[in-house]
Amino acid sequence: MQKFKKRGKQTFKLFWSVQGIRSKIVALVFIIGTIFLFPFRQRFGMERYQKLRFLFIFAHVYIKNEDGTFYCRRRTDDFGLVSIFHEQSLRKFFVLEQGIFLDVGAHIGKYTVMIGNQIKGKGKVIAIEPDPENFAVLLKNIHLNSMENVFPLNLAAASEEGKRDFFVDSFNTGHNTFYGKGQRRFRKIEVACQRLDTILAAHGVFRIDLLKIDVEGAEEGVLEGLGSYLFQTKMIIYEDFTNRATSFLRARGFRIVATED
């Protein structure tokens, strides 16, 4: 019962964060549609259930919450990802009063906007996102929040520079990867790759106060591309699909702490 009460409060708060009458109508349709589909989620399978849910986002939506203002695309999971309840247990780590935040796999800018608003003129954010469609929304969200301390780059961070095949998920815009070859749900594009040490040197950066890595399996390559900057990084928040990134960091003396998410 407590779980349902908590979820109800979250849904109510999410609804009121939506800006404008049109966006509120879309959000209400989404909430009603989710309630209707929920009893059938096991029958549909979770992946199909999630796809069906987001079909109820029939138009773009604007959300304003404590992190900032966000544009969310129709028929995508953007609406859920920018919610303050998504990856809620991680929020205590995303606190920075000043310094350098490096957002690798920035998607549409949830953490870019969050940290950019925290540090304002006391630092900078470098946001890296390879998918052109995600990147276009990232730019829009940076503009919506009037951010002059954010430097967005439409490329992939990797251990080697050059062009590389990249696979875009047909539904989940946050699951794009280098490793989708042969899977029907992905379409192939080509992206530019650059090492982080090259990027940071070009921006006159000498240290990293907070580094976020969310790159769907390519974590180790991102870390390798840091070069000597790895040892000038205060904190790294990363998702590890293969455990190779964790092994890489442990071998270099980093202390690893697992989080709920």
The amount of helix comes to: 25-40%
What's the order of the H and E elements?
HEHHHEEHEHEHEEEEHEHEH
Q: Are there runs of 5+ residues with pLDDT below 50, and where?
A: none
Task: Report strand %.
Answer: 15-25%
Major sheet attributes: 5 strands, parallel
Radius of gyration, in angstroms, nearest whole number: 19 Å
Shape assignment? globular
User: What is the number of helices?
Assistant: 10
State the end-to-end CA separation.
23 Å
Number of E-type strands: 11
From the helix content, strand content and strand pairing, which structural class follows?
Answer: alpha/beta
What is the residue-mean pLDDT, rounded to a whole number? 92
Strand order of the largest sheet: 6-5-4-10-11
Describe the structure.
This protein has 261 residues and is an alpha/beta fold. It has helices at residues 2-17, 21-37, 41-44, 46-54, 78-81, 110-119, 132-144, 196-202, 219-224, 244-251, and strands spanning 18-19, 61-65, 68-72, 99-104, 123-128, 150-153, 156-157, 162-169, 186-194, 210-213, 236-238. The model has no long low-confidence stretch (mean pLDDT 92).
